Amino acid sequence: MLIFSIVLMGIKFAAYIITHSNAILTDAFESIINVVAGAFALFSIYFATLPKDENHPYGHGKVEYLSVGLEGGLIVLAGGAIILKSVMGFFHPSEIHSLDIGLYITLFAGGCNFVMGKYLIKQGKSRSSILMVADGKHFVTDTVSSIGLVIGLIIIYFTKIFWLDNLIAILFGGFIFYSGFKLLKESVTNLLDEADYEKLNQVVTILNEFRQEKWIDMHNLRVLKYGSHLHIDAHITLPWYDNLEAAHAEVTAVENLIKEKLEGEVEFFIHADPCLPVSCPICPVKHCPVRQHEFIKRLDWTLENLLPDKKHTL
């Protein structure tokens, strides 16, 4: 990916040198970001795969979010620089020439970005790497901006209205700025452990589908992401009369179920709670020797009742 970005950066700057188009320069500036981000991403992917140690008991996966944040910040700076240069271009215009060559080069670079972007997104999803997915989306975004840039350059080529070059550059500078802001936001939310409701819903769906009789209740569910690793906390209510070995077997069954159904490495911390008389109405255990209240119905688990730190009853 890094070598690919360096080659594309050279191609795009060659297009700018040939044409002196600020619009093409926006594409070239973004390639600098791809090179810098690619270098840091290469280190981040290596660092994220390091095993847990005494100083990093949850692993090193969060470095990926730092890398995404760095990339987003650089993109924001590039977008701002492009807008500033383009505004100055209205007051100090430069001659534009050889737009046809610039068009061909931009089209070629955009096609390469699209192919690389789709590949990175596919690989990132299969490896549960937010960094690879973010880089892939960035390459695809480059493709979209390249298509818009080509359309703008074609208009300039046929109309000879050269001040449109600065206007197009400002528009795409704003688009680049917004793309960087979204990456920054994604990085911050993940570093602050914002709830991932998509992943939570996956866990809830699995638990409901494969729920066992002795899993009376569950609450205080948490899912934390550390790169491709997931750390899941939960409290499960089990029959109070089961011995420690039996309770451990049920906890292990929950862990194995989630690990089997979710991609990537999963670490599960489950706190086992004994059932109480208030649990009887929702307890599906058929042959309970100490039941104090009649079973009424099994409580379906949802995000609304699994996330709070509170045992359930009817």
Kindly report the name of the CATH homologous superfamily of the largest domain. Answer: Cation efflux protein transmembrane domain
Tell me the series of helices and strands, N- to C-terminal.
HHHHHHHEEHEH
Largest sheet properties: 3 strands, mixed
Q: How many angstroms does the end-to-end distance come to?
A: 55 Å
Low-confidence sequence ranges:
none
Helix content: 55-70%
Beta-strand content estimate: 5-15%
C-alpha geometry: elongated
What's this entry about, in short?
The chain has 314 residues and is mostly helical. Helix content is 62%, strand content 9%. The model has no long low-confidence stretch (mean pLDDT 81).
What do you see in this structure?
There is one protein chain. The protein has 314 residues and is mostly helical. The chain is built from 9 helices and 3 strands. A 3-stranded mixed beta sheet has the order 1-2-3, covered by helices on one side. It is elongated. The mean pLDDT is 81.
